[in-house]
């Protein structure tokens, strides 16, 4: 429960005196590099009085603002936009005079202090500086001159603006950009822009706004509860605490498919699920890429558009160079025995056993394994566009599905129940019947069959996930990605988008 009952120490007695003092003193007037977009103007509801006009004429507020802005040394996410906003609004404070009279800045302080409920250090949002400025603000201004009043006000104003932008972005988008954290990540992920970030200047009620941006997914709430329990029983260095922290950050990323039905693969869980209208309609084991960097299954999101029944395996050049050629060096009949066609500069070689692979330069050769029992893709593969050339597929080798740790492939995802997956995607009808018949054919021939409607596939990486009962399950960090992310989001140097 957030405490919003802090009171400010005004040197005057009575509500009228407080409002009068506030109006007189206030009406004068982050960190990635992004293309400059002029800040949106905000209707300030100014109260113009002769006292205010006289007060502002005593100094050059633009010059004073620049001094405060440059001396603050804040890691603004959008410094040009913030500078432009105040320039367009006469260098007058906006947030402080709007929120100070009703103690709403203390409400903001409470939310920032409780950022650790989201696995975030409050100092990411300069909570120490905000608290100090709020505690000292009224006492300092009561004896200060006009220039000092303005500078004190704008220092607090800028710190509050920066914190609001960072916190708002963190709750809605996360604080790290996954495309910059992970080398093997190609999932479309919405990131905050300067325009929507600057909308914090239009906020009228801090509590209503901050409540509206809190993550509300059931998975997120379950991990938050687990984190609270963990904090009560252990230190921040505990591995479970770290696991919960990084997975809360992942849940804040906006990368989830926005359709009712999609295929979900969680790499550390070694599991594929069909999600339909928020419920799991099918679940099966999968095998994913090995721990070696060049064999890891990538995080991605795409659209499954077709299947190939009795698929041809276009052997990747890396596998050909590191494995296939070595087999051929030891056995000249390796290609014939495994139904692998050999091509030189795109032309089929009729007698590959005549090639001396120990002496031959292999760069001009390519290899395709024909459909059959020996084909590692099994009887069907599910196709979707992606830059890593991976796909979901069947496999003739079933033993790895009995293992707990199933990181055994070269990067593609092997599925335990390929026919059930095909049925979940195609449903009843002629196309599924074609698939079923072709997969059972003793004399296989490759055949493409397109989906009536494309279905999203989302391959992600969660080492903590809550089931429908809210129970949090933990999975081994097989690729070591938790530690990489934890370093990016941890204070004192979080890598903010």
Topology:
Elements lengths: L14 H12 L23 H7 L4 H11 L7 H10 L6 H5 L4 H10 L13 H16 L3 H28 L4 H4 L3 E2 L7 H4 L8 H7 L5 H16 L5 H14 L8 E6 L4 E6 L2 E11 L9 E11 L3 E2 L2 H14 L3 H4 L2 E5 L2 E2 L16 E5 L10 E5 L7 E2 L13 E3 L3 E3 L2 H9 L3 H11 L6 E14 L3 E3 L5 E3 L6 H9 L8
Parallel strand pairs: 1-5, 2-14, 4-12, 11-13
Antiparallel strand pairs: 2-3, 3-4, 4-13, 5-10, 5-14, 6-9, 7-8, 7-9, 10-11, 15-16
Helix pairs in contact: 3-8, 6-7, 7-8, 12-13, 13-18, 16-17
List keywords for this structure.
497 residues, alpha+beta, L,D-transpeptidase catalytic domain-like, 3 domains, eight-stranded mixed β-barrel, four-stranded antiparallel β-sheet, 17% strand, elongated, disordered N terminus
Structural class determined from secondary elements: alpha+beta
How many structural domains? 3
| Multimeric status of the protein | single chain
Strand content: 15-25%
Spans of 5+ residues with little confidence (pLDDT < 50)?
1-55
Q: CA-to-CA gap between the ends?
A: 29 Å
The counted number of beta strands is: 16
* Main sheet attributes: strand count, strand direction, barrel closure: 8 strands, mixed, barrel
Molecular structure report:
- The strands form 3 sheets. Strands 2-3-4-13-11-10-5-14 form an 8-stranded mixed β-barrel. Strands 6-9-7-8 form a 4-stranded antiparallel β-sheet.
- It has helices at residues 15-26, 50-56, 61-71, 79-88, 95-99, 104-113, 127-142, 146-173, 178-181, 194-197, 206-212, 218-233, 239-252, 317-330, 334-337, 418-426, 430-440, 481-489, and strands at 185-186, 261-266, 271-276, 279-289, 299-309, 313-314, 340-344, 347-348, 365-369, 380-384, 392-393, 407-409, 413-415, 447-460, 464-466, 472-474.
- It has 3 domains: 15-212, no CATH class; 261-312 and 373-462, L,D-transpeptidase catalytic domain-like; 317-369, no CATH class.
- By secondary structure, the chain is of the alpha+beta class.
């Amino acid at each position: 429960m957030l405490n919003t009952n802090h009171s400010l120490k005004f040197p005057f007695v009575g509500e009228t005196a407080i409002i009068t003092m506030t109006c007189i003193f206030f009406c004068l007037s982050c960190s990635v590099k992004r293309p400059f977009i002029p800040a949106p103007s905000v209707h300030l509801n100014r109260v113009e009085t002769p006292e205010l006009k006289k007060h502002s004429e005593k100094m050059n507020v633009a010059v004073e603002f620049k001094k405060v802005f440059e001396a603050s040394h804040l890691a603004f996410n959008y410094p040009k936009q913030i500078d432009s906003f105040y320039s367009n609004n006469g260098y007058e404070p906006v947030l402080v005079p709007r929120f100070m009279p009703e103690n709403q800045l203390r409400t903001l302080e409470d939310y920032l202090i409780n950022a650790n409920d989201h696995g975030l250090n409050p100092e990411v949002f300069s909570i120490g500086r905000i608290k100090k400025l709020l505690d000292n603000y009224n006492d300092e201004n009561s004896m200060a001159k006009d220039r000092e009043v303005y500078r004190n006000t704008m220092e607090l104003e800028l710190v509050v603006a920066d914190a609001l932008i960072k916190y708002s972005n963190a709750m809605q988008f996360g604080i790290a950009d996954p495309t910059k954290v992970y080398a093997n990540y190609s999932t479309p992920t919405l990131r905050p822009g300067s325009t929507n970030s600057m909308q914090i200047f239009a906020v009228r009620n801090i509590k209503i706004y901050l409540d509206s941006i809190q993550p509300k997914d059931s998975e997120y709430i379950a991990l938050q509860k687990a984190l609270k329990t963990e904090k009560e029983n252990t230190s921040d260095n505990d591995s479970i605490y770290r696991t919960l922290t990084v997975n809360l950050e992942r849940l804040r990323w906006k990368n989830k498919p926005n359709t009712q039905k999609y295929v979900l693969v969680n790499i550390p869980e070694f599991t594929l699920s069909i999600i339909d209208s928020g419920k799991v309609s099918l679940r099966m084991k999968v095998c994913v890429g090995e721990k070696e960097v060049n064999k890891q299954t990538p995080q991605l999101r795409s659209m499954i558009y077709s299947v190939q029944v009795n698929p041809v395996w276009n052997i990747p050049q890396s596998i050909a160079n590191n494995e296939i050629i070595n087999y051929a060096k030891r056995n000249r009949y390796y290609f014939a025995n495994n139904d692998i066609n050999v091509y030189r500069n795109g032309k089929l070689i009729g007698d590959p056993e005549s090639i001396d692979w120990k002496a031959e330069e292999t760069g001009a050769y390519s290899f395709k394994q024909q459909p059959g029992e020996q084909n590692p893709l099994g009887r069907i593969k599910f196709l979707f566009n992606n830059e890593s050339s991976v796909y979901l597929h069947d496999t003739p080798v079933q033993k790895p599905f009995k293992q707990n740790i199933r990181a055994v492939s070269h990067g593609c995802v092997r599925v335990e129940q390929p026919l059930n997956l095909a049925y979940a995607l195609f449903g009843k009808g002629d196309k599924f019947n074609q698939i079923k018949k072709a997969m059972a054919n003793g004399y296989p021939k490759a055949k493409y069959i397109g989906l009536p409607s494309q279905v999203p596939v989302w391959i992600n990486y969660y080492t903590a996930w809550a089931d429908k009962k809210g129970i949090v399950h933990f999975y081994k960090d097989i690729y070591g990605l938790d530690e990489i992310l934890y370093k990016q989001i941890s204070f004192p140097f979080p890598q903010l988008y």
